Amino acid sequence: MRRNRIGTKAEFLWAWDVEDISQMNGPLAVQEYIQELIRADSSNIKQIITPPPEVDIHVWQYEHLRQFILELNLLVTQLKGLCTAQTCPKMKATEDWLYLCAAHKKAQECSAIDYMIHNLDQSTSILTNIKTYPSRVSINPQNATNNFAFIVRRLYRLFSHTYFNHKEIFEDFENEMFLCTRFTEFALKFDLMSPKLITIPKEALKL
Fold this sequence. Notes:
Pfam families: Mob1_phocein. By secondary structure, this protein is mainly alpha-helical. It contains seven helices and no strands.
């Protein structure tokens, strides 16, 4: 049984081989497959972001974006008490990069922590809108084109702020999750963000 039984020790949780996606059924099969790959070896970036031949490319991208949002919420939680309206009153990476929050009717300045929360909420709202994404087994390519790059660009800024302003948190989180590395490789692989917008140096990533 592919099940964590009551009393299972932490080191034995999800201790089963990754199932072939062709054997997985249901509307959440792609999400489950991605999560299994991450649990099996979060450092195997290439395997995690490479779509199996039988998976629709837009569904693959969509499910990865949902997964990134789940994990970015964990990163924001790590920043609690360190990144505040007092310590980071503006959403910046370096002094040269100031980001306005587009989660409002008119883009405006927000504290870094509010910017992160607002954009995670906005991205979640876009991806869970059943009018735009009524199915998780078929994605309208036009909806992918309209939204995915927009979401990726803004979510990347969460990594950028954390790296340049809370580097210890960034490094601890990246050492365990490989999240920024995976996100960056994913964005570049699928042309969802220009390389010119990559602000975090390669040596900070787990490549």
